[in-house]
Amino acid sequence: MNGQASAVMTRTGGEWVVDALRAEGVRHVFGIPGVHNLAIYDALGRQSAIRHILARHESGAAFMADGYARSSGEVGVVVVTTGPGATNTLTPLAESYAGSIAVLTIMSDVATDLLGRDLGALHEVVNQIECFRPMTRWAETIAEGRAIPTAIAGAFDLLRTGRPGPIALSFPNDLLFGKSEAAVRTGRAGRRPPCHVNDVDEAARRLARAERPLVIAGGGVVSADAGEELVAVARRLGAPVLTTVMGRGAMSERDPLWHAVLPNKRATEEVIASADVVVAVGCRFAARSTKGLLLNLSFRPDQTLIHLDLDPTVIGKMFKPEVAIVGDARDGLTRLLDALRGGEARATWDRERLATLRSAASARYTPELAGFMRALRDAVPADGIVVNDQTGVNYWMEWFFPVLAARTFLYPVGSATLGYGVPAAIGAKIAHPGRPVVAVVGDGGFMFSVNELATAVKYRLPIAFLVVNDDRYGAIKWLQEKMFEGRWGEADLANPDFVALARAFGAHGERVAAVADLPRALGAAFAADGPTVLELRFTCEPPWEM
Question: Cα angle at 64 between 491 and 417, to 5 degrees?
Fold first, then answer.
């Protein structure tokens, strides 16, 4: 671990946690106090550099940390207590893992002498940390008080140098309350590794000869802040650009070279098949997008695949590349552009055909759905943040809502979990208090995390929660009918009066009569003195083809 250390001092473990977070530049943490982590909360209460956001459930706190990290590029930090408090964060961390989002979970544990003994201690989950290993980049129980600041610094080093993702650190409560000698690092360390020049040169040689080059940009481009470099490479090659869902916003989707979202088969399948050289950057070709309900991606032997990624374990996992480049996306794209300088684009794409494919959609993408996209886009400024949950309209937004800037379209694409939208929007608003934030949720998903509306009220956050209500799990009903000869069941919902519910929480509430009223209603919500729940009756089928 690099960086200088402060003078050795004696502090409680809780104080070391807060001091170490502050040294890493953390400004916000999300969490809930419990008997075992109160030493952390005592330390938080005696300083002002870090603001704590009190959630109403640990899963909400962790989703808030995800939304904070996803929208800002900073590490989202969540603090929870032992056992059920800790395990309540597992579903959010599964999403953060799938989306490669930097979230640090700090949890207490039973006392050191009780670890792993199954003696029925308060809140005990035997070998608690083992629950977190499958869905984190690193999960560790800290054994000594003096190791607390070192462990937290190491977590930030890992997040700065490698593929982002959740990290879980567990601190036995006796270490948090007890005092120990330690030191906090005063300088931040770590950077992402550069790409090997020989690999980049080989990729440039292949691309310089390409007649139909294609770029596929993933979330790694966003996390590396490499949007400008991506656009420059695409311009030099004259290449259409596909983005994964996590890569949306890496370039403006009003740019003529942006083509479509990768899993949108009708727009992308022919383009992929026509390409002679494909360069994929920061993209792991997740099965959900490439082997899902629509696109069944493959590459022919006569096509050249160049794969650039920070994580060497994802290269070749789904498709074997001709050229593999390991390293930071921004560094790799910069080097690639330098290697291509002096040449001219040779691309022979049929631009008229590309334009036709770009707007391709099934008949189920109705004028009503297109109107919804236009109304929402018109209502949200280019830098406004749109947070998705999972409902029929969100599945269409995944492909057809125009994304104009990075980190403005938050979508739980990895785990596709219900209940993401409300707390993630709170995290995004905490990260960006001056920017409009809207969460688009279904009636089913809204009820998964409606309790966090109380958090938005507590902190007077002017977030718009747009509840698209069809009184059912509509996508599930559609799937049942397709799979079981029209039979369906257990998908109808008995919903509350959402407007009255919002007012009961102390939020604003309004029933929006029509899609055309969305710009007015959202504008008022963005200017309000607290959160607003907007209910819109809207029914649609999902975009899947079976």
Answer: 25
Helix or strand or coil: residue 503?
A: helix
- How confident is the model over 454-463, as pLDDT tens digits? 999 999 999 9
Note the CATH architecture for domain 9-182.
3-Layer(aba) Sandwich (3.40)
Could you count the other beta carbons within 10 Å of the beta carbon of residue 441? 31
H-helix or E-strand containing 215?
strand 213-217
Neighbouring C-alpha atoms within 13 Å toward the C-beta of 420 = 29
pLDDT in tens, 73-101: 999 999 999 999 999 999 999 999 999 99
Query: Closest Cα to residue 99, out of 195, 190, 222, 193?
Result: 222
**pTM of the model as a whole:** 0.96
Q: What is the pLDDT of residue 3?
A: 63
**Are 12 and 177 spatial neighbours (Cβ–Cβ below 8 Å)?**
yes
Q: Which CATH class is domain 197-358?
A: alpha beta
Helical spans, DSSP H, in 310-391: 329-340, 351-358, 367-379
Residue (of 146, 124, 131, 153) closest to 36 by Cα position: 124
Q: DSSP code of 270?
A: H
| Domain 9-182 matches domain 367-537 at the CATH topology level | yes
User: Pairing mode, if any, of strands 258-261 and 437-442?
Assistant: unpaired
Q: In whole angstroms, what is the distance from residue 383 CA to residue 433 CA?
A: 12
Beta bridge partner(s), residue 179: 12
Give the other-Cβ count within 10 Å of 10's Cβ.
Answer: 12
- What is the dihedral sign for C-alpha 313, 318, 320, 323? negative
CATH class given for the domain over 367-537: alpha beta
Q: What is the domain partition of the chain in residue ranges?
A: 9-182, 197-358, 367-537
Over the chain, what is the mean pLDDT? 95
Q: Which of 367, 439, 468, 342 is nearest to 71 (CA)?
A: 439
Cβ pair 39, 177 in contact under 8 A: yes
DSSP E strand stretches across 110-210: 138-141, 167-172, 179-182
Distance between CA atoms of residues 445 and 450, nearest Å? 9
The residue among 273, 324, 316, 321 whose CA lies nearest residue 296 is 273
Amino acid making up residue 101: I
Which helix (H) or strand (E) segment is 533 a member of?
A: strand 532-537
Cα–Cα separations (whole angstroms), residue 394 to 100, 186, 441:
20, 44, 8
